[in-house]
């Protein structure tokens, strides 16, 4: 089945490139050059994916996504931007985008990201990450020490805080997954994945990545819950 994608981009040259590369998936591409047109097209047509520019002449990508969600539309969305600052990219993910593509990018990179977002490769990614998680140690001590300049006391303090919060975080992820609250699940997993990296919770971090890739997978959820329990039981 050919995917239906809404592309929102105001620059004519960039829009032409993104349209041509997206159409090669293959996909049927609707094009909007502003928020107003995007809102109209999204309401009129059922899209499988939105590809939204972070900056538009009548608003911004995060605001457009929020307006679309207020209309009750739950189509997954990718952002694209020329910005490279970490804070900007993190803010877009926190706004609800599955991921952020930095322009310019090769057509192959764009197409791989679109396929992943559309779900054609999600299960393969999740399976690989789940298998990887099962082979990982619960804690990556060397990585945690390196991240904190070799200060063991800082590692111990952060891990203690992390373990104290983990039961509540785990329960929140489980509740959001089982209720189908995609926004709450995405936000919780995004925060948890960053925390895992800081404290070296390698097995749990890989399980979080697998659940992010397939948020509707009961197997990925079970993998996550098992990794959370292993992490809690290790201390």
Structure explained in plain terms:
It is a single chain. The protein is α/β, with parallel strands linked by helices. It folds into two domains: 3-118, Rossmann fold (3-Layer(aba) Sandwich); 123-233, no CATH class. The protein contains eleven helices and seven strands. The strands form two sheets. Strands 2-1-3-6-7 form a five-stranded parallel β-sheet, sandwiched between helices. Helix 1 (12-23) packs across helix 5, helix 8 runs antiparallel to helix 11 and helix 10 (202-213) packs antiparallel against helix 11 (218-233). The longest helix has 28 residues, at 152-179. The radius of gyration is 19 Å and the shape is elongated. It starts with a strand and ends with a helix. The model is unreliable at 120-132 (pLDDT under 50).
């Amino acid at each position: 089945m050919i995917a239906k994608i809404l592309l929102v981009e105001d620059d004519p040259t960039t829009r032409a490139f993104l349209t041509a590369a997206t159409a090669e998936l293959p996909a049927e591409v609707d094009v909007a050059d502003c928020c107003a047109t995007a809102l109209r097209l999204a309401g009129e047509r059922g899209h499988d994916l939105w590809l939204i520019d972070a900056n538009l002449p009548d608003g911004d990508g995060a605001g457009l996504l929020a307006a679309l969600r207020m209309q009750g539309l739950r189509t997954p969305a990718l952002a694209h931007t020329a910005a490279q600052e970490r804070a900007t990219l993190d803010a877009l993910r926190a706004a609800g985008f599955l991921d952020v593509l930095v322009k310019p990018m090769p057509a192959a990179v764009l197409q791989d990201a679109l396929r992943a977002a559309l779900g054609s490769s999600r299960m393969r990614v999740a399976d690989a990450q789940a298998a990887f998680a099962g082979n990982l140690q619960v804690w990556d001590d060397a990585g945690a020490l390196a991240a904190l300049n070799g200060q063991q006391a800082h590692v111990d303090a952060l891990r203690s805080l992390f373990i104290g919060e983990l039961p509540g975080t785990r329960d929140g992820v489980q509740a959001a997954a089982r209720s189908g609250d995609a926004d709450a699940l995405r936000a919780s997993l995004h925060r948890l994945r960053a925390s895992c990296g800081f404290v070296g919770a390698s097995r749990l971090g890989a399980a979080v990545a697998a659940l992010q890739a397939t948020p509707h997978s009961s197997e990925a959820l079970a993998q996550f819950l098992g990794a959370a329990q292993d992490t809690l039981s290790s201390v």
